[in-house]
Design a protein that fits this description.
Ado/ade_deaminase; binds zinc ion; alpha/beta; 8-stranded parallel sheet; TIM Barrel; globular; metal-binding; single chain; binds adenine; A_deaminase_dom; 326 residues
Length: 326
């Protein structure tokens, strides 16, 4: 209980949160009513009952259906604001939010409605909650390279509203090399780069995210331990892994938390962090991820401090903000 209070009180950065994955069933139903969108679920309970996943794809199908209620700038604001209130309660002081513009623009939602609603919530989180908040635009890897280029083009007039690009959605069969050119174009714009790799996919996808996409962090990366040479590189170059323990259990990457490898990643000297991924779907926000993982793996205050320090080191915060929490 003392450890849980310590974890709760500790300032931390969240670096792997899909803002569409923070959409709680209650808000999905509220937005469906507000926007007159018909949902294939009768009630909040009915929707929640569908949250039984066997792998990444089984989750993504429901996650994209949930996002269908988001139509207007205010909807994106409301979703992100609800997340920031929840993050504040967990003492998250810095957050980098992934968003998936293609999920919305493919339904006819203007790119500006998406990014302006999210950015307004970020600015308000800074001013009213003291949370430093940034946006990272993710390309959906199950879609084409051409579609990713179109999205980057739509984003260009909004260059000052987000700090980086990422790569998410269905991993296996959509390797990093498919997006090598679009990531080069994004880096030319001065954007940071991250990518999901080694969630379900092989260690080679982590190598390719580093060498072909030149990313600064790996999202998930838990499959890295299958390749000792890769582990050595991640350690020596201090390449952060944004690990999401409850997500990995819900998507059956590990059988249960006691089998999760985050303790081993830390013992091997990697810059691992704990994050919530899609908290509305996976059963917990930041502190829930920490507390359940620490309990299952019998980790203690030393590991909590390491994880919090890692989260600031791995962040795209300014040097001044990083120094405040070092
Ligand atoms: N989009 C939302 N959550 C994701 C995850 N865990 N992996 C890949 N794409 C995602
Ligand atoms: Zn993710």
């Amino acid at each position: 209980a003392a450890l849980n209070r310590f974890i709760q009180a500790m300032p931390k950065a969240e670096l792997h949160i899909h803002i569409e994955g923070s959409l709680e069933p209650e808000l999905i139903f509220e937005l469906a009513r507000r926007n007159q969108v018909k949902l294939p679920y009768a009630s909040v309970e009915d929707l929640r009952a569908a949250y039984a996943f066997t792998n990444l794809q089984s989750f993504l199908d429901i996650y994209y259906a949930g996002a269908s209620v988001l139509l207007h700038e205010a909807d994106f604001f409301d979703m992100a604001w609800a997340y920031f209130l929840r993050a504040k309660a967990d003492n998250v002081v810095h957050a980098e939010l992934f968003f998936d513009p293609q999920t919305h623009t493919d339904r006819g939602v203007p790119f500006a409605a998406v990014i302006d609603g999210l950015r307004r919530a970020c600015d308000r989180a800074r001013n009213e909650l003291g949370i430093q908040a940034e946006l990272i635009l993710c390309f959906l890897r199950h879609l084409s390279e051409e579609a990713a280029f179109t999205t980057l083009q739509q984003a260009r007039p909004h260059r000052d509203k987000f700090v980086g690009v990422g790569l998410d959605s269905s991993e296996v069969g959509h390797p990093p090399e498919k997006f090598q050119r679009v990531f080069a174009a994004a880096r030319e714009l001065g954007l940071r780069a991250v990518a999901h790799a080694g969630e379900e996919g092989p260690p080679q996808y982590i190598w390719d995210a580093l060498d072909l996409l030149q990313v600064q962090r790996i999202d998930h990366g838990v499959q890295a331990l299958r390749d000792p040479v890769l582990v050595q590189r991640l350690r020596e170059q201090r390449i952060p892994l944004t690990v999401c323990p409850l997500s990995n259990i819900k998507l059956c990457v590990f059988g249960d938390l006691a089998q999760h490898n985050i303790g081993e990643l830390l013992r091997q000297g990697l810059v691992a962090t704990i994050n919530s991924d899609d908290p509305a779907y996976f059963g917990g926000y930041m502190n829930q991820n920490f507390v359940e993982t620490f309990d299952a793996l019998q980790l203690g205050a030393a590991e909590a401090i390491t994880l919090a320090r890692n989260s600031f080191e791995a962040s795209f915060a300014t040097h001044a903000d990083k120094a405040r929490y070092a």
